[in-house]
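The protein record passed on for reference:
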Amino acid sequence: RIGSPQAPAESGRVPAHPKLACRWGGLGLLMAAAAQQKAPGPPANNAADIKGQATPQKRARTSAVKQKAKNGAVVKTETAVKVKTETSVKTEQETKSSGPHGMKKAEHKLDPSRFYSFLQASLKMEAKELMGYDVELTDPKAKELWPTVERLATRNLGNNEKWVPFHTILGVHEFFVMEHIHHAKVKWWTDYHRFLLMFIFRSHCKRDFFLEVQLPHLMRQDFWRNPVAAFAPGSQMEKDIVKYRAKGNALQTSCFLIIPERLLANDDQNLIRNLLLRTQRLITLAEELWPVVNDKKTTSDQKYDIIAEKILAVRNLGDTWVKMLMVVIDLARPELHLLQKRCEVGIGASDPLRAILEEEGLISPKVKREMGERQARTESSEVFQNLKQGIMAVKRQNIQVIQVTKGMAGTLDRAHAIAVVLAKLSNGGADRPALDKKKLQLIADKNLKVPALGLDAKAQELIRLDEERKAGEALNPKIANEPTASGALWQLCERINGSETASSRHFWDLLAKVEAHARKHYAHLPLVVAQMKTKRCHLSAVTLQVQLCEFRQFENYLQRPSLKRPASSSEL
C-alpha cells in the first residue's frame, strides 16, 4: 500500500511537516506512474471478442479509454494529496498560533521595557512626594517618561484622592488605616478591635468624618458591647452624623460611586440611613471573617476563596468590594500572602485591565451584546424602565429627576403608574421636595389606578433569559475552561516578572534603593515596613493590577490631541 498513490490519504499517515508530506506524495505519484508503464493491459477475453465481433481498432480504443481513466485517477489523487498537505500545514500553523484553551495567540502588545520605565517614574514620584526623597533615575527611558508622569500624578494629589503610588499601602486611604487604626495609640484596642475598625472606615473612606464624628464613639469601651447596635437608626451615632452633615460636610469619599437606595424622602436623611445600614452589614461581615483569617488549618488560597464568598454574600457588595476589602485584610495580615498571586478585578478597573489581558492573548475578547436604540435627550421628563433592576426612573435630558422602585411600590406596574404621575408633575414645574412628598402619597394610596402592563412578567422573563445564557456559557468548554481575569492576571504577572530587559534591571535596582529608604522613613509603622521588602522579580498580582491600570491611563493621556500638537510660542 505504500506504493499506492492513495496510501497517504486513506491511511491518514500524511506527515504533519510540509516537506515530508510533499516527499510522501511525490513518492506515491512516481510509483503509480511506474506501475502504469509496466502493467500490461487487461487479458483478452477471446470469447467475448468473438461474440461481440471485436476488432483490433475497438480493443485499442477501449485500452485508450482505460488508460485515460487511470491518468485521471492519478491527477485526482495528486490534487487530493496536495489539498491534504496544505490542510496539514494550515492546521499546524493554527496550532502554533493558538494560545491556551484554543484561543488565537495575540502578539504581545504590552512592552515590558516601557512598563518598567513607567514603574521607575512612579517610584520616583512616590519617594519624592511621600518621603521627601529625590531619587535619581539612571534609565534613559524612565528619564524620558518622568516629566509626563509627574505632571499627570500632580493633578491627582490632595483632596482629589485619586493619585495611586507604587506601593498600595501608601495610598491615601490605606495609609490612613495603618496610621490611625492599626498603629493608633489606643492601648486597649486588640487586633480584633482594629480589624473591625478597618471595615467601619471602609464603609465611607472619609478621613475627616472618621476622626471628628466616629472616633470619639469608637474609643469608648461601651461602644464595643454591641457595635452593630451603635449604628442603628435613632442611635447617638446617627444624631452626631446628622449634625455633621448639616454643616455641609461630605459623608463618603468622592472615589466612591455609591448611589444610595431610596429609603427616606429627605436626601440627607436617606444618605445617612444608607451609611448606617452599610456599616452594620460590614461590621457583621468583619465578625464572620475574623475566625477565617486566624484559622491556621486553611491555606492562603482557601482563605481567599472563603473571604471572597462571604463578601459577595453581603447585600450590595460585588467584585469591587471584594478587591477593596481583600486589600485591607492583606495589608493588615501580610503573613497570609492573600494577594501575591490572586486579585479580584473591580468594576472600575475591569474594562481597561480586560483590554490589556485580551491584547496579550490571555483571555478571549468579551462578546459584545447588541444594545437597544439609545434614547434621545428630551426637554420634558419621561419614564425610563429598568425592568431587571426593578426601577422606574423619571429623567429629563438623560438626567434622573426621581425614581420609583418595585420594592417601594409593590409591583413594577404600580411603580410605573406612580412614575408617570411624577413625570407629569415634573413637567408642570414641581421641584424635588414636592415630587418626593407626592411619591410617598402615591405609594400609600391604595386606590391608585394601575394599568395592567405585565411588566413584572417581562422582568422575570428577562432574568430567566440571562440565567439561561450564563448556564450555556458555563457548559461551553471554551468559556468554562478559560482562565478568570484574576488567573490571567497572574499569568501576565509571571511574564513581566520574567522580563530581563535593561529597564527591568534598572527598576529592580531602584526599587531596592527606595524600599531601603522607606524602611527607615516608616520605622514607626511596622506594617508599612513589612510591605517594603519586595523580592527581586516578584511583583504581586495586586501591585501589577493597580500599576497596569495606571500605565494604561498614562498611555491614554499621551494620546490626547493637546499633547500631539506642537507647543505654541506662548507655551514655550
Remarks:
- Strands lie at 382-386, 391-396, 399-405.
- The longest strand covers residues 399-405.
